[in-house]
Structures are given as structure tokens and as C-alpha cells.
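Case study: Peptidyl-tRNA hydrolase.
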Amino acid sequence: MNAAPIRLIVGLGNPGAEYERTRHNAGFWLADTYAADLRASFFVEKSFMGEVAKARVDGENVYLAKPITFMNRSGQCVGALARFYKLAPEQVLVLHDELDLLPGQAKIKQGGGHAGHNGLKDIQAALGGPGFWRLRIGIGHPRTLGLAQQVADFVLHPPRREEQDQIDDVLARCRPLLPHFLAGDFERALRQLNEGKRA
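Here is what the predicted structure looks like once written out:
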């Protein structure tokens, strides 16, 4: 049985050219891909504190956003959009980098904690709870990857070449999940993602 279809997709990252290729911006990378698939273009909408793209899918409005605040204030954009378009948290999908998953891995989940991710923490506060969906894009943890960097430094640097290749691969596997999210068919999205891992 399908859940509520996704109507707002939010990619997390930090604005500005200096952050464009950093690990923390993996959510932006996938949001750009999804916007291209929907033939939608991002425009800065200051009232929503983000870049916003709009599309029509099966007669329904779909919105994509990339906050133009820094990561720890992502909830300002998400909250403003959800209130304006009267969207419930379960109609929101957040695309974000995940330290607890290796590069090349991705997971779909609804609810749960923020695990110290400042973007998720702020969105949870803005939406009044953790009921939104997340697509977690693995970037690895510096300890797991054998690096001496602190986490804050690690996420604000570009991935190494082999890690970038693995992240690009998982983003490509996440791309065909978009229609399932917009149909509210999370079981099928999850199944397809898991099948992709074994391929």
C-alpha cells in the first residue's frame, strides 16, 4: 500500500562555489539530477530562502528546493515551503550526505533521529517532528576511510577520486527512484535501490 506521495524534495548542502564539490553537498548533486529529470529549473526565491524548482507530474505540483542558508539553517527553507504549500512532513523527502554509510551506499528511511546532522536537526525543528522521509547518500566517515581529519573538516572537503566515483555511482542508482517517490511507492523504491546494490 502506498504512502502519501512526495511533493517537496529538498537537497541539502552549503551555498557558494567554494562548497560546490564538497561531501556535505551530496544532497544538492542529487537534487540537480532530479530537477533535470523533471525538466525543472531552479530559481532563487528569497521568500523561501532557497533555490526552488517547480514541475507538474500527473497533474500534481511537485517542488524541489536547495536552501541558500548554510546547512545548519536548512529548516528555514523547508519550513517556509511546507507551510506555504500546506504539505505534511510525510510529503517531504530530504536528500542528504550520510557519514554512517560508505561511499557507494544509500538508504531510504522515514523518521528517526538526526545523528548530529545539523541540516536534519534544523528541518526536524521546523517541521515539528521527524516524520519526513530521507534519502541518505553515503560519504563515509574519516575514521572508516582511514583519514585523520575531524568530521567538520572532512564534510567540507571534496571526496577523493575513488570516493567520488562511488558516490557518482550511487547517485546514478538513486536517479530512477524519483517516479516511485512521487507516487508514494516507497517499498518499490527501497526494493529497486537494494537490487541495484547487488547488481
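For the exam, be able to explain this: Strands lie at 8-11, 43-45, 50-57, 60-67, 92-98, 106-110, 133-138.
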